[in-house]
């Protein structure tokens, strides 16, 4: 009995120490930060809230069905062959005459706009987990570049603090290359804990606009949630982003369920030359926080987008659907609504407004 008590006490102590000191779990908000959040219209009872009520099915039958789906063998949840990669080549246009986006799988992208290099949700790790040696591994195994090869990054723009969007190891490797971090309210606390200078971090609420060296950005609503630890759900804000330069107007959805906010964003900031819209890791049981693929296309229409680049797929298995189901359903729905879709392979640049975008059905070769 004494041995069992000692083992249990040791285990509990280890858990407490990990939760308190393990850096990948992120920062702790100060009393001053929490007091400042109270000025936000989206912050109530110590948490950030969505614009509309977000309901997730947590019934016993839903939980049982998720356990059942998790235990089922489905070889199509991961590609059966290596994904094609195109080695990243930087085509910086210092005159800003051509905008382009390079997708690295999931929601990580490089935006080249008006002579600036901007990384969006640069999760470059092998698994979206605080303990990456246990997580679902990246399909491609590697990226089409080494972080050390990247040039100076003018800004990193983050949509929220989940592990598949904000990665500890990636930030450690990037932080000395980045001139500015532009993030939603509270997310800067994680960056500060990881050694990013507070002076280069700016935090923003929904509908807050900022100017960054000639670019205009706006933090816009999304319908999602946040949190990296057991006790900090919704303690930081999540958002989508509008990024406008001379060469193009870009919309980045972050993670979001479908909602009326897309039309409002379109009315306020559209039309957009290119939309970067999440389309993967969905399920009817949590569709309020992750759009179904057909809703992705409708959201693109709502924000008045011209070309749609579907993201949040092609890197990790975080749901129960086939790994390539998102792009299959998006392209089918887009055809019905006469929407132009870009389907680049990982590392292939998409030039904005320069004829037809990449449209190969490359995922068929990885089945």
Automatic annotation (TrEMBL):
GO cellular component, one term: cytoplasm
Pfam families (alphabetical): Lactamase_B_2
Species assigned in the record: Paenibacillus algorifonticola
Function: Counteracts the endogenous Pycsar antiviral defense system. Phosphodiesterase that enables metal-dependent hydrolysis of host cyclic nucleotide Pycsar defense signals such as cCMP and cUMP.
Catalysed reactions, as listed in the record: 3',5'-cyclic CMP + H2O = CMP + H(+); 3',5'-cyclic UMP + H2O = UMP + H(+)
Domain Metallo-beta-lactamase: 118-313
Protein name: L-ascorbate metabolism protein UlaG, beta-lactamase superfamily
